[in-house]
Design brief:
The chain is of the alpha/beta class. The chain folds into 2 domains: 141 residues, no CATH class; 66 residues, no CATH class. It is 39% helix and 20% strand. It contains 8 helices and 6 strands. The longest helix has 21 residues. The C terminus is likely disordered.
């Protein structure tokens, strides 16, 4: 009887945490230390919820105007976030959503789903990985290509340049459900930058490159014993900097309050 392979659950954020700093991964996922909810996390979640409710309403057959439906989505989402948001955040979110319906110009994308959860198994002779997470939005574009969309509330898109790992992950998950598909599109939608898109269309060969990466990362995580820190300027955004000697060596960054989320 063959020995059962070790099992590891991975998400995009969990994997990126490990790749960014093994010590932070230990704090978050091994020791499971409590994490403070930052204001930019709250703001991002609020915007995600508004857009989710807005698009799901039309998917369900709403005949309201975009303005009316967005107002309803805003008020509905606000019920869950009212006490966590500042007046400035509420105003910014409202202005962003008004801008969004103006960008749509009464045209509605063909939205197939919002906040679609997934659990996808992959394995090799060493380990079994279960990929899990949520896809913010899935569209079917006019050219017949399925489109994985991830909203970002960052004020900068520099950290996303040529970083297609998250979108390739979502494309792979969708490909496994629809193996007949030859191409899948992915976009980061920059909410605070006029909803501009950082997009790319992936073919099957490129999409499948994420499989060996996850298997290798999963095996590294399973085998990890030291969890060495990787001190960089990003330590200033780490919620466990105060208990990490290596992180405390990093000088504070003046732009702390202007940064968005590092990953979702």
């Amino acid at each position: 009887m063959s020995e059962e392979k070790p099992k590891v659950r991975l998400s995009v954020s969990k994997t990126k945490t490990y790749l960014g700093c093994h010590k932070n991964f230990e704090f978050v996922y091994v020791l499971k230390l409590p994490r403070e909810e930052k204001d930019y996390h709250v703001f991002g979640s609020f915007c995600h919820k508004i857009l989710e409710d807005f698009h799901l309403a039309f998917k369900a057959g709403s005949t309201n105007s975009h303005g009316v439906q967005m107002g309803m989505a805003f008020k509905s989402a606000l019920k869950d976030f009212e006490e966590k948001l500042t007046p400035e955040q509420k105003k910014e979110a409202r202005d962003l959503m008004i801008n969004y319906i103006q960008i749509l110009q009464n045209k509605m994308p063909n939205v197939l789903g919002c906040e679609e959860n997934f659990n996808q198994d992959i394995s090799d002779d060493r380990i079994q990985i279960t990929l899990n997470g949520f896809i913010d939005r899935i569209d079917l574009d006019e050219d017949g290509i399925y489109h994985m969309i991830d909203y970002k509330t960052s004020k900068s898109d520099k950290y996303l340049k040529e970083d297609w790992f998250q979108l390739l992950t979502y494309a792979y998950v969708y490909l496994m459900k629809h193996p007949e598909v030859e191409k899948i599109r992915g976009s980061y939608v920059m909410i605070r930058q006029n909803f501009e898109r950082i997009s790319r269309t992936f073919d099957r060969e490129e999409i499948l490159t994420v499989v060996p990466k996850y298997l290798e990362y999963g095996y590294q995580i399973y085998s990890e014993t030291k969890f060495d820190p990787n001190p960089t300027f990003l330590c200033n955004w780490c919620q466990h900097q105060n208990i990490c000697p290596a992180g405390q060596t990093q000088k504070p960054v003046n732009t702390f309050k202007t940064q968005g989320e590092i990953s979702w």
